[in-house]
Amino acid sequence: MKKRVIIYLLSAAALFLLSVNTAQVFAAGNEKTVTPSSAANGQFHSKGHFKHDPQLVKMEAERLGIQTEGKDTASLLKEIRETKIKKNAQSLGIDTKGKDFKTLAGEVRMAKLKQKAKELGINTENKSLDTLSAEVQEAVIKKEAKELGISTNGKQLQDLAQEVYKARIMKDAKELGISVHNKTLKELAKEVRDKRIYDAAEKLGINTKGKTTHEIFAEIMTNHADKAKELNLYPYKRMGICNFKHLKN
């Protein structure tokens, strides 16, 4: 029996373009979440492999100027999220004074969402976050479909998103010289991600001998994040725009 693919549409397109969390550090190692989005613009999930890595969490906290001594991973993650929200708010000209995390996060999300909506030609007037998010995600998925040569006629958005995801993974695998024979999409997604990590490391002059992709990715984000972003390398390189969780065959 064909198993259902659970697609997180509300987080997929909206959070893809928000960049208000720690996805840049944690998303790439998530074995249980297939995210064809670039890691720079997605939502990391609670079971993400890197999310629970104390060393990487500490590195990210230190990069943000957060004091780490005597703090556990959960506390650092909370501070990282709060710091990133404040930085995003400031860059968007949002006043942070007297606002709690939830309020500020909502304002940042809405501001980012409106920016993307404007790019897509979507009217934002008098629309709630959920309404605007739904319109943006539909537009983004259809735009991706068009770029991949996929017809959108008569298709449910969930079915279209799944088709886009498959096409994107297959396209990326082909471009990277990865064989698709007898492999699930989840396996291919992991191979694509790993290959992009190694390619990025090579271009950044990182020695990969004897290192896992986990370790290589950590080195990229810790010591070469700015250069990776400048050169549009993984995890900043765009790899698609839909975010799928628990992909099953």
Could you walk me through the main structural features you see in this protein, from its secondary elements to its overall organization?
The protein has 249 residues and is an all-alpha fold. The protein has one domain (9-245). 54% of the residues lie in helices and 2% in strands. The chain contains 10 helices and 2 strands, in the order ααβααααααααβ. The chain has helices at 9-16, 23-26, 54-63, 73-91, 101-119, 129-147, 157-175, 185-203, 213-223, 225-230; strands spanning 33-34, 244-245. A two-stranded antiparallel ribbon has the order 1-2. α1 crosses α6 (129-147). The longest helix is centred in the N-terminal third of the chain and has 19 residues, at 73-91. The chain is flat. The termini are close together.
Uncertain spans, ≥5 residues at pLDDT below 50? 1-49, 239-249
What is the CA-CA span between the terminal residues? 9 Å
What is the domain total for the residues?
1
Structural class: mainly alpha
Specify the biggest β-sheet.
Answer: 2 strands, antiparallel
Shape: flat
- Identify the strand order in the major beta sheet: 1-2
Extended strand count: 2
Number of helices: 10
- Tell me what portion of residues adopts beta-strand conformation: under 5%
> How would you spell out the order of helices and strands?
HHEHHHHHHHHE
Radius of gyration: 18 Å
Mean pLDDT: 78
The percentage helix is 40-55%
